[in-house]
Design a protein that fits this description.
Blueprint lengths: L13 H32 L5 H9 L3 H12 L3 H13 L2 H8 L7 H8 L4 H6 L1 E3 L2 E2 L1 H25 L3 H6 L5 H14 L3 H17 L5 H8 L19
Antiparallel strand pairs: 1-2
Helix pairs in contact: 1-3, 1-8, 2-8, 3-4, 3-12, 4-12, 11-12
Length: 239
């Protein structure tokens, strides 16, 4: 394997690198579309109306943040609490953006615009190693995911299946299942993540008896401050 996979990246045309990103993005977009249909349908069922879920997907373009927003609102936490919950989840894009910033081009406005393509799957697929990223692959992967996410949301909103059908198909379980998958992925990575998850669950379990579920969600996020203590001290497990 090449010790420095980013060394020859400039020898490949931007078009080919963009198409490589599109190829990766197609698979990600397929999953995003299905998830977005569920978000649109459940947001409509929660009384968001027709336009609000679609605008949310256009602007936010983050499944985890949008699900947190919807879950907090459904739990009675109110708009400020819901926004706080979504912002806390989207806070992960700050270090991701810092990491990719060196490979973006142009002035401040152009770099800010290019930075909007930083989403989880695209960011991971564009990583070359040694702190380098293929910006064209990043663009290509996101170029197909964003319209798929918005289109899926629109379909979910317009179809708006009745509540009984949503329950029969198990769509009402997508919110908790989505976050459970994220949690499992984190738990496999480090011992500190497991400690933080346990503390967060304990905080939420205590708060849910005295405050709305949305506020309990925000309160539980205090456990994430454990991450400020640094990396995992327990080492990784063999896979």
């Amino acid at each position: 394997m090449d010790a420095n996979p980013s060394a020859d990246i400039d020898d490949v045309s931007p078009r080919l690198r963009f198409l490589a990103g599109v190829k990766v993005g197609v698979g990600l977009a397929s999953a995003a579309f299905v998830l977005a249909v569920t978000f649109g349908a459940l947001a409509r069922a929660e009384g968001w109306g027709v336009l609000a879920p679609i605008v949310c997907s256009l602007v936010v373009f983050s499944g985890s943040a949008q699900f947190a927003l919807a879950a907090a609102l459904a739990g009675g936490g109110g708009i400020p609490t819901a926004i706080m919950a979504a912002a806390l989840i989207n806070g992960r894009f700050i270090p991701m953006g810092v990491a990719v910033a060196g490979d973006l081009r142009g002035g401040r406005f152009r770099r800010a615009l290019e930075g909007q393509t930083v989403v989880d799957g695209s960011w991971a697929s564009a990583h070359l190693g040694d702190g380098r990223f293929d910006r064209w692959k990043l663009f290509g992967a996101t170029a197909v995911q964003w319209p798929a996410w918005v289109a899926g949301t629109a379909l979910g909103v317009l179809v708006a299946p009745p509540e009984k059908l949503v329950e029969a198909l198990g769509l009402d379980l997508v919110f908790p299942a989505f976050f459970l998958l994220l949690l499992i992925d984190e738990l496999r990575r480090s011992r500190m993540a497991r400690v933080a998850a346990g503390l967060g669950a304990s905080i939420a379990a205590g708060l849910v008896f005295v405050v709305p579920a949305g506020l309990a969600l925000v309160g539980a996020s205090v456990a994430a401050l454990l991450g400020l203590r640094g990396g995992d001290s327990g080492g990784g497990e063999a896979s």
